[in-house]
Amino acid sequence: VIVSSSGCWSVAKPAIYTGVPRPNEMYDVIVTADVNLNVSNGSAGTPLPTVDAGLTATYWNGANPPGLPSGETKELFATAQGIIGVTLPQGYNDNVASASDTAAPPSGGGGGGSNPPPSGGTNNLAAQSLTTDSSNSTATFTFNSTFTLGGTVSVRFYKQDGAYLEGYGSVRYMHIAANGTATAANSFPDLQAGDVIWASVDADSSNGSSWTSEQFSGDDSKRHAETTYLDNYTAYVIPGEPPAPPPVIKPLDGMHSVTYPTLKNVITYTTVQVQVPVVIMKMVPLTPPPAVQKHEKLRTPPPGWDENGNYTGGQ
Protein backbone atom coordinates (compact mmCIF):
# COMPACT_ATOMS: atom_id res chain seq x y z
CA VAL A 1 0.00 0.00 0.00
CA ILE A 2 1.54 3.27 -1.07
CA VAL A 3 0.42 6.87 -1.11
CA SER A 4 0.67 8.89 -4.30
CA SER A 5 1.57 12.54 -4.09
CA SER A 6 -1.86 13.53 -5.45
CA GLY A 7 -3.47 12.36 -2.21
CA CYS A 8 -4.69 8.93 -3.24
CA TRP A 9 -3.73 5.67 -1.61
CA SER A 10 -3.02 2.98 -4.15
CA VAL A 11 -2.61 -0.76 -4.19
CA ALA A 12 -0.04 -1.52 -6.88
CA LYS A 13 1.09 -5.11 -6.50
CA PRO A 14 1.55 -6.51 -9.00
CA ALA A 15 -0.53 -4.56 -11.51
CA ILE A 16 -3.59 -3.14 -9.78
CA TYR A 17 -4.14 0.62 -9.43
CA THR A 18 -7.00 1.58 -7.13
CA GLY A 19 -7.25 5.18 -5.99
CA VAL A 20 -9.05 6.28 -2.82
CA PRO A 21 -9.46 10.03 -2.14
CA ARG A 22 -7.78 11.19 1.04
CA PRO A 23 -10.06 12.73 3.72
CA ASN A 24 -9.28 16.02 5.45
CA GLU A 25 -8.46 14.38 8.77
CA MET A 26 -6.12 11.86 10.31
CA TYR A 27 -7.00 8.36 9.25
CA ASP A 28 -5.86 4.80 8.68
CA VAL A 29 -6.28 3.00 5.39
CA ILE A 30 -6.96 -0.75 5.45
CA VAL A 31 -6.87 -2.74 2.24
CA THR A 32 -7.95 -6.36 1.95
CA ALA A 33 -7.85 -8.94 -0.82
CA ASP A 34 -10.49 -11.69 -0.90
CA VAL A 35 -11.48 -10.68 2.65
CA ASN A 36 -14.65 -8.81 3.61
CA LEU A 37 -14.46 -6.95 6.94
CA ASN A 38 -18.26 -6.40 6.92
CA VAL A 39 -17.96 -2.83 8.18
CA SER A 40 -20.47 -0.26 6.93
CA ASN A 41 -19.01 2.31 4.57
CA GLY A 42 -18.01 5.46 6.43
CA SER A 43 -18.84 4.04 9.85
CA ALA A 44 -16.40 2.71 12.39
CA GLY A 45 -17.12 -0.70 13.76
CA THR A 46 -15.62 -3.97 14.92
CA PRO A 47 -14.54 -5.99 11.87
CA LEU A 48 -16.30 -9.29 11.35
CA PRO A 49 -14.07 -10.65 8.59
CA THR A 50 -15.21 -13.35 6.25
CA VAL A 51 -13.33 -14.91 3.37
CA ASP A 52 -14.98 -14.21 0.01
CA ALA A 53 -16.84 -17.29 -1.16
CA GLY A 54 -15.24 -19.31 -3.88
CA LEU A 55 -11.84 -17.67 -3.52
CA THR A 56 -8.72 -19.17 -1.99
CA ALA A 57 -5.28 -17.87 -1.22
CA THR A 58 -2.89 -18.14 -4.12
CA TYR A 59 -0.64 -20.58 -2.29
CA TRP A 60 -3.41 -22.78 -0.92
CA ASN A 61 -3.91 -24.63 -4.20
CA GLY A 62 -7.47 -25.32 -3.13
CA ALA A 63 -6.49 -27.13 0.08
CA ASN A 64 -5.54 -26.30 3.65
CA PRO A 65 -2.05 -27.72 4.27
CA PRO A 66 -1.04 -28.72 7.79
CA GLY A 67 0.46 -26.01 9.90
CA LEU A 68 1.17 -22.61 8.44
CA PRO A 69 0.66 -22.44 4.64
CA SER A 70 3.74 -21.99 2.51
CA GLY A 71 4.88 -18.37 2.63
CA GLU A 72 2.92 -17.47 5.77
CA THR A 73 5.29 -17.00 8.68
CA LYS A 74 4.29 -16.43 12.27
CA GLU A 75 4.90 -12.73 11.71
CA LEU A 76 2.48 -12.71 8.79
CA PHE A 77 0.00 -14.75 10.78
CA ALA A 78 -0.06 -11.92 13.31
CA THR A 79 -0.48 -9.25 10.63
CA ALA A 80 -4.26 -9.36 10.61
CA GLN A 81 -4.36 -9.44 14.42
CA GLY A 82 -2.38 -6.20 14.54
CA ILE A 83 -4.48 -4.45 11.89
CA ILE A 84 -8.08 -5.54 12.46
CA GLY A 85 -7.85 -7.10 15.92
CA VAL A 86 -8.70 -10.62 14.82
CA THR A 87 -6.95 -13.38 12.91
CA LEU A 88 -8.05 -14.83 9.60
CA PRO A 89 -8.08 -18.38 8.27
CA GLN A 90 -4.71 -19.76 7.38
CA GLY A 91 -3.42 -18.36 4.15
CA TYR A 92 -5.32 -15.08 4.44
CA ASN A 93 -3.53 -13.26 7.24
CA ASP A 94 -1.21 -11.54 4.77
CA ASN A 95 -4.20 -10.48 2.64
CA VAL A 96 -4.59 -7.43 4.87
CA ALA A 97 -2.43 -4.29 4.75
CA SER A 98 -2.71 -0.84 6.28
CA ALA A 99 -1.11 2.60 6.26
CA SER A 100 -1.60 5.81 8.19
CA ASP A 101 -1.41 9.48 7.32
CA THR A 102 -2.34 12.90 8.62
CA ALA A 103 -4.78 15.24 6.90
CA ALA A 104 -5.17 15.41 3.15
CA PRO A 105 -3.69 18.43 1.35
CA PRO A 106 -5.98 21.34 0.43
CA SER A 107 -7.70 21.01 -2.93
CA GLY A 108 -6.39 23.04 -5.85
CA GLY A 109 -7.92 24.48 -9.00
CA GLY A 110 -9.94 22.32 -11.35
CA GLY A 111 -10.65 19.78 -8.65
CA GLY A 112 -7.04 18.68 -8.33
CA GLY A 113 -4.85 18.53 -5.27
CA SER A 114 -1.55 19.97 -4.19
CA ASN A 115 0.99 18.19 -2.06
CA PRO A 116 3.26 19.21 0.77
CA PRO A 117 7.00 19.58 0.13
CA PRO A 118 8.65 16.32 -0.94
CA SER A 119 9.31 13.94 1.90
CA GLY A 120 12.46 12.50 0.35
CA GLY A 121 14.69 15.26 1.70
CA THR A 122 17.52 16.39 -0.52
CA ASN A 123 18.27 14.85 -3.92
CA ASN A 124 14.65 14.20 -4.71
CA LEU A 125 12.07 14.94 -7.39
CA ALA A 126 8.46 15.01 -6.26
CA ALA A 127 5.09 15.47 -7.93
CA GLN A 128 3.22 18.37 -6.35
CA SER A 129 -0.11 18.56 -8.16
CA LEU A 130 -2.05 17.45 -11.20
CA THR A 131 -5.03 19.58 -12.20
CA THR A 132 -7.25 20.16 -15.21
CA ASP A 133 -8.82 23.25 -16.71
CA SER A 134 -12.55 23.98 -16.54
CA SER A 135 -13.26 21.91 -19.65
CA ASN A 136 -11.15 18.96 -18.42
CA SER A 137 -9.31 18.95 -21.75
CA THR A 138 -5.85 20.07 -20.57
CA ALA A 139 -3.96 18.74 -17.54
CA THR A 140 -1.21 20.67 -15.77
CA PHE A 141 1.45 18.81 -13.79
CA THR A 142 3.58 20.58 -11.18
CA PHE A 143 6.68 19.05 -9.62
CA ASN A 144 9.74 20.27 -7.75
CA SER A 145 13.32 19.33 -7.03
CA THR A 146 15.48 19.35 -3.93
CA PHE A 147 18.68 18.65 -5.87
CA THR A 148 21.31 21.29 -5.25
CA LEU A 149 22.00 21.54 -8.99
CA GLY A 150 19.82 21.89 -12.04
CA GLY A 151 19.24 19.15 -14.54
CA THR A 152 17.04 17.54 -17.16
CA VAL A 153 14.03 15.39 -16.28
CA SER A 154 11.53 13.35 -18.27
CA VAL A 155 7.80 14.05 -17.87
CA ARG A 156 5.07 11.62 -18.92
CA PHE A 157 1.27 11.62 -18.86
CA TYR A 158 -1.01 8.59 -18.67
CA LYS A 159 -4.68 7.70 -18.70
CA GLN A 160 -5.79 4.76 -16.59
CA ASP A 161 -7.65 1.99 -18.41
CA GLY A 162 -8.85 -0.53 -15.86
CA ALA A 163 -5.74 -1.84 -14.10
CA TYR A 164 -3.31 -0.45 -16.69
CA LEU A 165 -1.90 2.92 -17.67
CA GLU A 166 -1.96 4.12 -21.27
CA GLY A 167 0.61 6.72 -22.29
CA TYR A 168 -0.83 10.01 -23.53
CA GLY A 169 1.39 12.23 -25.66
CA SER A 170 5.12 11.87 -26.13
CA VAL A 171 7.83 11.98 -23.46
CA ARG A 172 9.01 15.51 -22.90
CA TYR A 173 12.39 16.45 -21.50
CA MET A 174 12.52 19.59 -19.38
CA HIS A 175 15.16 21.49 -17.44
CA ILE A 176 14.53 22.26 -13.80
CA ALA A 177 16.64 24.61 -11.72
CA ALA A 178 18.33 23.67 -8.45
CA ASN A 179 15.68 23.47 -5.72
CA GLY A 180 13.24 24.65 -8.37
CA THR A 181 9.64 24.02 -9.42
CA ALA A 182 8.43 23.30 -12.95
CA THR A 183 5.14 22.67 -14.71
CA ALA A 184 4.13 20.73 -17.81
CA ALA A 185 0.79 20.60 -19.63
CA ASN A 186 -0.77 17.89 -21.76
CA SER A 187 -3.96 17.70 -23.81
CA PHE A 188 -6.62 15.12 -22.89
CA PRO A 189 -9.44 15.85 -25.37
CA ASP A 190 -11.62 12.85 -24.53
CA LEU A 191 -11.80 12.89 -20.73
CA GLN A 192 -15.07 12.13 -18.97
CA ALA A 193 -16.17 12.29 -15.37
CA GLY A 194 -14.65 9.44 -13.40
CA ASP A 195 -11.62 9.03 -15.66
CA VAL A 196 -8.23 8.79 -13.92
CA ILE A 197 -5.13 10.46 -15.32
CA TRP A 198 -1.53 10.24 -14.11
CA ALA A 199 1.64 12.26 -14.50
CA SER A 200 5.22 11.35 -13.57
CA VAL A 201 8.68 12.85 -13.43
CA ASP A 202 11.66 10.52 -14.04
CA ALA A 203 9.35 7.51 -13.69
CA ASP A 204 8.13 5.40 -16.59
CA SER A 205 5.16 3.05 -16.79
CA SER A 206 5.43 2.18 -20.48
CA ASN A 207 4.46 -1.42 -19.72
CA GLY A 208 1.24 -0.09 -18.20
CA SER A 209 1.44 -2.07 -14.97
CA SER A 210 4.48 -0.94 -12.93
CA TRP A 211 6.86 1.98 -12.52
CA THR A 212 10.48 2.08 -13.64
CA SER A 213 12.58 4.77 -11.97
CA GLU A 214 15.08 6.92 -13.86
CA GLN A 215 18.10 8.76 -12.52
CA PHE A 216 18.27 12.54 -12.48
CA SER A 217 20.45 13.93 -15.30
CA GLY A 218 22.29 16.78 -13.61
CA ASP A 219 23.94 19.77 -15.22
CA ASP A 220 27.26 18.27 -14.12
CA SER A 221 26.78 15.60 -16.85
CA LYS A 222 26.31 12.92 -14.20
CA ARG A 223 23.41 10.69 -13.25
CA HIS A 224 22.04 11.03 -9.72
CA ALA A 225 19.78 8.60 -7.86
CA GLU A 226 16.91 9.96 -5.77
CA THR A 227 16.35 9.25 -2.11
CA THR A 228 12.84 7.94 -2.92
CA TYR A 229 10.75 7.36 -6.01
CA LEU A 230 7.37 6.87 -4.32
CA ASP A 231 6.47 10.54 -4.88
CA ASN A 232 7.54 10.82 -8.53
CA TYR A 233 4.01 10.29 -9.85
CA THR A 234 0.52 11.44 -9.03
CA ALA A 235 -3.05 10.73 -10.12
CA TYR A 236 -6.18 12.82 -10.56
CA VAL A 237 -9.81 11.71 -10.90
CA ILE A 238 -11.97 13.83 -13.23
CA PRO A 239 -14.83 15.17 -11.07
CA GLY A 240 -18.51 14.82 -11.87
CA GLU A 241 -20.95 12.04 -12.50
CA PRO A 242 -19.68 9.33 -14.88
CA PRO A 243 -21.79 8.84 -18.02
CA ALA A 244 -24.62 6.35 -17.72
CA PRO A 245 -23.80 2.89 -19.05
CA PRO A 246 -25.55 1.82 -22.24
CA PRO A 247 -28.83 -0.04 -21.79
CA VAL A 248 -28.51 -3.78 -21.40
CA ILE A 249 -30.60 -5.81 -23.82
CA LYS A 250 -31.56 -9.04 -22.11
CA PRO A 251 -32.52 -12.07 -24.20
CA LEU A 252 -36.02 -13.43 -23.61
CA ASP A 253 -36.67 -17.11 -23.15
CA GLY A 254 -39.66 -18.97 -24.63
CA MET A 255 -41.69 -18.66 -27.80
CA HIS A 256 -42.54 -15.30 -29.29
CA SER A 257 -44.68 -14.40 -32.26
CA VAL A 258 -43.07 -12.29 -34.92
CA THR A 259 -44.85 -10.33 -37.65
CA TYR A 260 -43.05 -9.63 -40.90
CA PRO A 261 -44.21 -6.99 -43.40
CA THR A 262 -45.75 -8.25 -46.69
CA LEU A 263 -43.73 -7.49 -49.81
CA LYS A 264 -45.63 -6.34 -52.94
CA ASN A 265 -44.48 -5.63 -56.47
CA VAL A 266 -45.08 -2.01 -57.36
CA ILE A 267 -45.10 -0.80 -61.01
CA THR A 268 -43.79 2.68 -61.43
CA TYR A 269 -44.43 4.72 -64.57
CA THR A 270 -42.07 7.40 -65.71
CA THR A 271 -42.67 10.05 -68.38
CA VAL A 272 -39.73 10.48 -70.74
CA GLN A 273 -39.51 13.12 -73.49
CA VAL A 274 -37.65 12.17 -76.68
CA GLN A 275 -37.19 13.96 -80.05
CA VAL A 276 -38.86 12.18 -83.03
CA PRO A 277 -38.24 13.38 -86.64
CA VAL A 278 -41.53 14.20 -88.49
CA VAL A 279 -41.83 14.14 -92.38
CA ILE A 280 -44.29 16.73 -93.70
CA MET A 281 -45.56 16.60 -97.33
CA LYS A 282 -46.69 19.83 -98.90
CA MET A 283 -48.34 20.42 -102.32
CA VAL A 284 -46.67 23.03 -104.47
CA PRO A 285 -47.75 24.31 -107.96
CA LEU A 286 -46.17 22.53 -110.93
CA THR A 287 -44.90 24.68 -113.78
CA PRO A 288 -44.45 22.58 -116.97
CA PRO A 289 -41.42 23.30 -119.12
CA PRO A 290 -41.92 25.30 -122.31
CA ALA A 291 -42.84 23.34 -125.45
CA VAL A 292 -40.00 22.37 -127.72
CA GLN A 293 -40.36 23.78 -131.22
CA LYS A 294 -39.30 21.31 -133.86
CA HIS A 295 -38.12 22.29 -137.38
CA GLU A 296 -38.08 19.58 -140.03
CA LYS A 297 -35.47 19.73 -142.79
CA LEU A 298 -35.20 17.42 -145.82
CA ARG A 299 -31.79 16.18 -146.76
CA THR A 300 -30.71 14.53 -150.05
CA PRO A 301 -29.06 11.16 -149.39
CA PRO A 302 -25.39 10.90 -150.39
CA PRO A 303 -24.30 8.91 -153.36
CA GLY A 304 -24.71 5.15 -152.95
CA TRP A 305 -27.58 5.45 -150.44
CA ASP A 306 -31.36 5.63 -151.00
CA GLU A 307 -33.88 7.73 -149.09
CA ASN A 308 -34.54 4.95 -146.57
CA GLY A 309 -30.91 4.67 -145.59
CA ASN A 310 -30.09 1.57 -147.58
CA TYR A 311 -26.78 1.26 -149.30
CA THR A 312 -27.08 0.89 -153.02
CA GLY A 313 -23.45 0.54 -153.85
CA GLY A 314 -23.42 3.44 -156.19
CA GLN A 315 -20.88 6.19 -156.17
Characterization of the model:
This protein is mainly beta and 315 residues long. It has helices at residues 74-77, 79-84; strands at residues 2-3, 8-10, 20-21, 27-32, 35-36, 50-51, 96-101, 113-114, 125-132, 138-145, 151-161, 164-176, 181-187, 196-201, 203-204, 212-213, 216-218, 223-224, 233-237. Strands 11, 12, 14, 17, 18 and 19 form a 6-stranded antiparallel β-sheet that branches. The radius of gyration is 49 Å and the shape is elongated.
List key phrases describing it.
mainly beta, 29% strand, 315 residues, six-stranded antiparallel beta sheet, elongated, 19 strands, four-stranded antiparallel beta sheet
Distance between the termini: 158 Å
- Indicate the proportion of strand residues: 25-35%
Order of helices and strands: EEEEEEHHEEEEEEEEEEEEE
Number of strands: 19
Report on the biggest sheet: 6 strands, antiparallel
DSSP helix fraction: under 10%
- Overall mean pLDDT score? 74
Rg result: 49 Å
How would you sum up the global shape? elongated
What is the number of helices? 2
Low-confidence stretches: 1-17, 55-69, 102-119
Structural class: mainly beta
